[in-house]
Amino acid sequence: MDKNHVRQHVLEIVKDLRKQGLSKYNTNTSRIVNDTIKKVKLKRVIIGLNTPGCSYGKNLEGCFHCGYLKGYGHLNNMYNQFLEDLKQYAGQDTIYLYSNGSFFDPEEIPHKLQKKMLMHLVDSGFKRIIVETRPDFIYEAHLNDLLKSIPSHYLKIGLGFDTYNNDIRDVCLNKGFTRYQYDDAARILNKNEIIFETRIVLKPPFLTEDEAIKEALLSIEHAFKKGSNEVSLEPLAIQDYTLQDYLRKKGFYRVPWLWSVISIIRDVHYKGRTVVGGEAFLPLPKEIAHNCNKCSDSIWQAIDNFNKTQDIILFDSFDCDCIEDWKKDLNTKDIALFNRIMDNINGE
Ligand code: SF4
Ligand SMILES: [Zn+2]
User: Fold this and answer.
1) Nearest-CA residue for atom 1 of ligand 1
2) Structural domain boundaries, residue 83
3) Which one in 48, 102, 210, 246 has a CA-CA gap of 20 to 30 Å to 139?
């Protein structure tokens, strides 16, 4: 079956979902970020820039699993919003400067403005500034220009890779970049001694639990091989109007099990610093990775502690009846991926 034909079919579904969803989110992203940070008590210094939105997500397209808000910010107001939000964070060392998509996307934040904000943060005494971006926005010439004013050790970049397999990236996630582009971005960052954390999605839509674990392991291994300083494993969550929500309602998707998360961490933790991320999704997800009601909270607590300590022993004491359901899920086989996708979206 032709890959592009399958991708087009999924895209039509996603466009329909976005038509229903985006119209409901006419709101200020910065305010939502601040409200959310309070609600989930994230102890992080985050500015959520109110940008015009991810340029890759324009025209109801973009990544299939993305539940981000459409941007409503205006470039003229962005710097003032940045200064205003920054006031609450005087005296801190580390800051996350997030947008609706990619900090280095010049349509979201023009290059000059990126530089102005980063320089202001360095001048304000921050020692580490974390931004996130798709790999195809890592332009070597622009980075070289930035590094003339901002020493590389001030920066840390959250770099999207999502998944190893190009077919899965194209048809299940529609990321619109290739593994080669990730590799090239990693090369440029390494060459310029910029620390980066690779983001990996756990369980793209349409994959079985077993396929998802194998794919995450391949992806993490590749990221470390390409010089990633850290990996953030991001279990896919359910947000409204996303492909995974659509599939879940039809009985074709379950968020990843926490047993899968633990098994992946056990296999890779010795290769490099690995954290479980994705807690700052906006809008907040209505369902996140879980096991059963009895064990999920305590395992999430252990994951939080693991993120801080990298101590694998934290997972040794867990046991619960639901591990048998997870094992059953692992043994579920399915038909070839492209046929499965067509069946799932046609509702069979
Ligand atoms: S996941 Fe990131 S790159 Fe993809 S559409 Fe969403 S914001 Fe844009
Ligand atoms: Zn359980």
Assistant:
1) 66
2) 3-345
3) 48
Kindly tell me the burial class for residue 2, based on how many C-beta atoms sit within 10 Å of its own C-beta (0-12, 13-18, 19 or more): exposed
Q: How does DSSP assign 131-170, residue by residue?
A: EEE-GGG--HHHHHHHHHHS-GGGEEEEEEEE-S-HHIII
Helix (H) or strand (E) holding 202, with range, is strand 195-202
pTM, two decimal places: 0.94
| Least-confidence region, from 3-17, 35-49, 217-231 | 35-49
278-292 burial, b at 16+ Cβ within 10 Å, e below that, comes to bbbbbbbbeebbbbe
Quote the ligand 2 centre to 294 CA distance (angstroms).
5
- Separation of 303 CA from ligand 2 center, angstroms? 15
Judge whether 195 and 156 are in contact, CB under 8 Å: yes
User: Quick one: pLDDT at residue 240?
Assistant: 86
Task: Give CA–CA dist 343/330, Å, rounded.
Answer: 20
Cα–Cα distance for residue pair 123/127, rounded to 1 Å: 10
**Ligand 1 pocket: which of 133, 134, 170, 232 to mutate (most atoms <8 Å of CB)?**
134
Query: Which CATH number covers residue 71?
Result: 3.20.20.70
Amino acid 280: pLDDT? 56
Whole-number Å distance, alpha carbon 230 to ligand 2 midpoint, is 29
SS3 content of the chain, % helix, strand, coil (to 5): 50, 10, 40
Ligand 1-lining residues (CB < 6 angstroms): 54, 56-57, 62-63, 66, 68, 101, 134
Strand (E) positions, 17-118?
46-48, 94-98
State the burial class of residue 63 (Cβ atoms within 10 Å of its Cβ: 0-12, 13-18, 19+): buried
How many domains are there within the chain?
1
Residue with CA closest to ligand 1 atom 2: 101
